[in-house]
Design brief:
Length: about 200
């Protein structure tokens, strides 16, 4: 027996299960600067890679938050790798504060300069992707109505990897302790991986 519901009519459960079903989701820890150069840092769990050649990533924001507004103003952002070791700082940077607040300072994080974009990166992060924005799109529902949800797609133009997290030339996800969002208040950390070869057709 299954529990079926139509989202437009309510789920009938104590909490919306959608984010727990679409999980685990990598966290896009997005750093930007505004037009005046004030840094901003915020995590987004609606985040992923969308293309590998050229490499592209996307993140989606509920409302035109500071990250989206800054991308619109500057055309740039950095995606910092969210790790288990940085989980508390990542959570602190999610606080709803004014645009004048520097979340790097709020979360006790040191910023490091990027090479190709103006936004700084999280120095302690195992990896960071410097991105140039390709599009900012307000999403619409099947009825054509605007949702006040904004999807940002960026092309990766520069990649930083801390060499301590390279194992035989491979980025070591388990060693880096990749952090993922699992819905509700739940998170997961990757400390073990396994390999499977694709079947040969």
């Amino acid at each position: 027996m299954t529990h079926f519901y139509e989202p437009s009519k309510g789920h009938g459960l104590p909490h919306d299960p959608f984010k727990a079903i679409v999980a685990p989701r990598p966290i896009g820890w997005i750093s930007t600067v505004d037009a005046a150069g004030v840094p901003n840092l915020a995590p987004y769990s609606f985040f992923n890679g969308v293309c590998d050649s050229p490499p592209m990533v996307m993140f989606s924001s509920g409302g035109r938050k500071h990250s989206v507004a800054n991308v619109e103003a500057t055309g740039e952002f950095v995606c910092n790798f969210a790790s288990h070791a940085l989980r508390e700082a990542m959570n602190l940077s999610s606080a709803l504060v004014g645009p004048e607040v520097n979340e790097f300072e709020l979360a006790g994080l040191e910023a490091a300069p990027s090479r190709l974009v103006r936004a700084p990166r999280v120095k302690a992060s195992p990896a960071a992707l410097e991105c140039k924005a390709l599009s900012v799109t307000e999403l619409k529902g099947v009825d054509g109505a605007a949702t006040n949800r904004f999807m940002v797609i960026g092309q990766v133009v520069g990649v930083h990897i801390e060499e301590a997290f390279l194992t035989e030339g491979l980025f070591d996800l388990a060693k880096a302790g990749a952090l993922a969002r699992c819905g509700y208040l739940d998170y997961a950390s990757v400390f073990e991986t396994f390999a499977m070869e694709r079947p040969k057709g």
